[in-house]
Amino acid sequence: MIKHASLCLAIAAGLVSASAIAAEDPIVTRKAIMSSVGAAAGAGGGMLKGEIPFDPKIAALSLRTMRAAAYSVGDYFPAGSETGMETTASPKIWEDMAGFNEKLAKFRADADAAAESKPETVEAFKTAFGSVAENCKGCHEAYRVKKN
Ligand code: HEC
Q1: Which of 74, 43, 147, 60 is nearest to 111 (CA)?
Q2: Closest CA to 124 of 133, 134, 115, 137
Q3: Could you report the per-residue pLDDT of 114-127, keeping only the tens digit for each?
Q4: Which of 36, 62, 104, 130 could form a disulfide with 44 if both were Cys (CB 3.0 to 4.6 A apart)?
């Protein structure tokens, strides 16, 4: 009985530490943040293509999700996280951190302005969304590697 209980405790402790490591892994975290940006861009793009009816609440969700990511993702590229977990981050990030930070700063500024513009019409959303979406390609081309 005692033996069983302590085995359970050991398993529980193992699970706790394993999930703590996964949640704290900077690669896992930055991928999760970027994948939320992908979903936010997908919803915004869907409204611009007319696949989803325009709704100011979805516009706000899209722009504010991208803004939150622009503010947070930069914290998850520490030295030592260059490889592993099928990262598509380019080694150039760590060779040219200043350049990468410049891209992040522009992404933040554009996402901030877009979110604050609080678009109420599809035309206004198109302008706001477009200024944020310009940043994706620019940064990915310079600081992301394509892996199949
Ligand atoms: C300042 C640079 C930068 C900007 C701006 C940026 N990204 Fe990324 N993105 C990255 C990097 C670096 C990765 C690779 C992360 C990794 O695999 O560790 C990435 C990965 C991704 C991924 C893959 C996530 C996954 O699950 O592996 C998606 C989707 C994505 N970005 C979408 C976008 C979209 C959409 C935008 C524009 C609204 C955008 N990104 C803007 C740097 C950027």
Answers
A1: 60
A2: 115
A3: 999 999 999 999 99
A4: 62
132 contact partners, CB below 8 Å, separation of at least 6: 63, 66, 107, 110, 111, 114
Give the alpha-carbon dihedral of 106, 113, 33, 13, to 10 degrees: 110
Quick one: pLDDT at residue 146? 80
Residues in the chain predicted with pLDDT less than 50, given as ranges, are 1, 148
Identify which of 34, 83, 107 to mutate to test ligand 1's pocket (most ligand atoms within 8 A of the CB).
34
Tokens of 46: 């869907």
Query: Which atom of ligand 1 has the smallest separation from the CA of 40?
Result: 35
- One-letter amino acid of 47: M
Q: Residue 100 CA: which ligand 1 atom is closest?
A: 1
